Amino acid sequence: MPDTPARIAPVINPDAPGPVRTLLENRNAILAAGPAVHPVAAALPVVLKGGLVLAAMVPLRVLTTPPDVEPPPGTVFAGAAHASATLHWLAGLWPYAGAAAVLLAGARAVQCVLHRRKLRSLDAATEHYVQGDHLTVPARVLLSRAQRAQSAVVSSVVHRLDLIDRQRNEIVLPVQVWEIASALREYSRLWDTTSDSSSGEVVALQAARRQTLRASRDGVEQRVAALEDYAEQVREADLRYQELQQIQRLTEGNGEAMELLARTAADALAVAEIEAMTAQAAVVEKTFTTALDRASAAAVIALPTRATA
C-alpha cells in the first residue's frame, strides 16, 4: 500500500438531512464566495459610489438649465444648446439613479446576510463532513484505500448490471465509508492532542494513550481491508463475466461458421448440378450439330447448284 495518501474526496454523512447534504455538496462554491462580511460594510461602497454619482448629477442639472432665449438654428450656439439640453435631461434622472443605488446596496447587504448564514450552517454541519485536512497522514491513507475500494465496486460491470445486488451496494457502501471516515477523524483529533513531555509519568500515559489509538486505527484498517477484499472479488466477478461474454460470442460465431459450411456444401451440390446440365447441353449441342450437318448434306443433294449462263 502507498506510504503517502492520494487525494481523497470529502465524505458526507449519508444519513444527514437533505438540506444539510445539499449544503455540504455546495461547500466549495460557498467557500469560494469569500469570508463573511458585515452587511453594512458590504453595502457601504455601493452607497458611496451612488452618492458620488448623485453629487455630480444634481449640480449638472442646475448648470445645464436651458436659456430663456433659444439661439438661431444651424449655428454653433444651437448645437451647444442641444448638447446642454441632453445633459440636463440625463441629470434629471438623478432620483432614479439614487433609487437604483439604494436597491443595489440593499441587494448586496441581503447577499452578505445569506452568505453569512450559509457559512454558519457549514460550521454547524461539520459533524456530518470529513475532509483530508481533518485527518493525519496514516488516517488519510486508510480513507483513500476505502474510497478506492468503493469506487472499484460501483464502477464495475457486474454492479451496473445489478448482478451483485446493486441496491445494497448503493446503500451500504456509503455508510461503511462514512463510518470509517468519522472514526479516522476522531482518531486524528485524539492523536493530535497528544504531546511529548519530559515527565516519566506523563510519557508513560502518553505512550499508553497512543498505543490505544493505534489499536483503534488497526481496527479501522481491518475494516478497510475487508472492503478491499470485497472490491477484489467484484473485480474477479467482472473478469469472469467478460470471459463468459467472450465464450458466448465465440459460440455464436461457431453457429455462423456451421451455417457458412452448410452453404459451402450447397455450393458443391449446385456445382455438380450445373456440371450435369452442362454435359446435357453438350450432348444436345452435339446432336444438333450432327443433325445440322445431315440437313446441309441433304440440301446439297436436293438443291443442285444452278448452272451459270
Structure, described:
With 309 residues, the chain is an all-alpha fold. The protein contains nine helices and two strands, in the order E-H-H-H-H-H-E-H-H-H-H. The chain has helices at residues 18-25, 27-32, 39-63, 76-91, 94-124, 137-154, 157-160, 166-192, 200-302; strands at residues 11-12, 129-130. Helix 6 packs antiparallel against helix 8 (166-192). The longest helix is centred in the C-terminal third of the chain and has 103 residues, at 200-302.
Please sum up the structure shown.
The protein is 77% helix and 1% strand. The chain has 309 residues and is mainly alpha-helical.
Strand content: under 5%
Radius of gyration: 47 Å
Strand order of the largest sheet: 1-2
Number of strands: 2
The geometry reads as: flat
Unreliable parts:
none
Mean pLDDT: 79
Describe the protein's topology.
Blueprint: E1 11-12, H1 18-25, H2 27-32, H3 39-63, H4 76-91, H5 94-124, E2 129-130, H6 137-154, H7 157-160, H8 166-192, H9 200-302
Antiparallel strand pairs: 1-2
Q: Which labels suit this protein?
A:
309 residues, mainly alpha, 9 helices
